TrEMBL record:
NCBIfam families from the UniProt entry: sufS
Physiological role: Catalyzes the removal of elemental sulfur and selenium atoms from L-cysteine, L-cystine, L-selenocysteine, and L-selenocystine to produce L-alanine. Catalyzes the removal of elemental sulfur atoms from cysteine to produce alanine. Seems to participate in the biosynthesis of the nitrogenase metalloclusters by providing the inorganic sulfur required for the Fe-S core formation.
Molecular functions per Gene Ontology: cysteine desulfurase activity; pyridoxal phosphate binding
GO-annotated biological processes: cysteine metabolic process
Protein name per Swiss-Prot or TrEMBL: Cysteine desulfurase
UniProtKB keywords: Pyridoxal phosphate, Transferase
Organism (species): Sulfitobacter albidus
Protein family (similarity comment): Belongs to the class-V pyridoxal-phosphate-dependent aminotransferase family. Csd subfamily.
Annotated Aminotransferase class V domain residues: 24-392
Amino acid sequence: MFDVQKIRADFPILSREVNGKPLVYFDNGASAQKPQVVIDAISNAYAHEYANVHRGLHTLSNIATDNYEAVRAKIANFLNASDEEEIVFNSGTTEGINMVAYGWAMAHLREGDEVILSVMEHHANIVPWHFLRERMGVVIKWVDTDSTGALDPARVIDAITPRTKLVAITHMSNVLGTVVDVKTICAEARSRGICTVIDGSQAAVHMPVDVQDMGCDFYAITGHKLYGPSGSGAIFCRRERMEEMRPFIGGGDMIREVTKDTVTYNDPPMKFEAGTPGIVQMIGLGVAIDYMQGIGMQAIKAHEDDLRDYAVQKLGGLNWVQVQGTTPTKGAIFSFTIDGAAHAHDISTILDKRGVAVRAGQHCCGPLMAHIGINATCRASMGVYNTKSEIDTWIDALELAHDLFA
């Protein structure tokens, strides 16, 4: 059975106070806290088992390599990839999407070709395509959400033309919490030979992910949102697409042989993993994935859906709070403003005085903010260890902020 108090005991930071109040950590959309097992794994790797990976013939290098490479199979299982060699390690989603832009798209798109994005995309899934727009004349086409923040797959499909070569869509909005029917989008795109890139940064931590069922070409995840270390992440690359890619970064490990006149590359996924990697970070991510799967992704989703529904109910009694994104199947992410109140940064500061940690600003989603006509919001984003009583504390802090600024 899901025992949130037992889970909370696994995260040492949750026992601390902030400004004399128990910490209520609602900034999981930016970065999640780490369980003790992850912290211990990182400490142990540095203290007792650290060495560089691959090619070393000594004991410590063999241990580090085995522990590091074991994470590839864990991530493949986590995403239900058909083969662990379809998993490329990186520092997180930003690097993963840039790898697709430089390694696949620059080799396959030409001036006038189209990339379709939703207006909800994080800057990590926008700026790489702007690079192609600036440098190659690629055209970016935008698809809007409706008034509830939902994205109808038909809108994305209707935007496809003969010049469309790539569709890059978030699985879950980091601002609105909207969950996108990426399976329908990927199926249509694949039937037309169009490449699909899915930003899974938010979704992968909140729900089960099955890339085979989804039918995407690329699916990016980032470790620090998955209760793992920062600087860790991976991208699923469908084998057919991987074979079409050229290397993104050059250096050690991604080569077979280098001479004065030639270079031959290693087989994928090593072909795309140049230089000394984040060895300990990836080992920590593997432990974080073990931890999540030990709880069960369906159980995590059910718990967070319950938190979402409770928060919706509590917010419903505050007619002066405006929430962006109201689809009933959204994740437990609430971006909000207060009528007549000061800037989101001021609201966030008041909440912090009550120990409630939320994010304030544009959340790396400039086009979305322009679309909904708001300069900034506060965002409360919940995770596996959050509780209904913490939501009550957040609501009380919101009422204080409203009283101060009204």
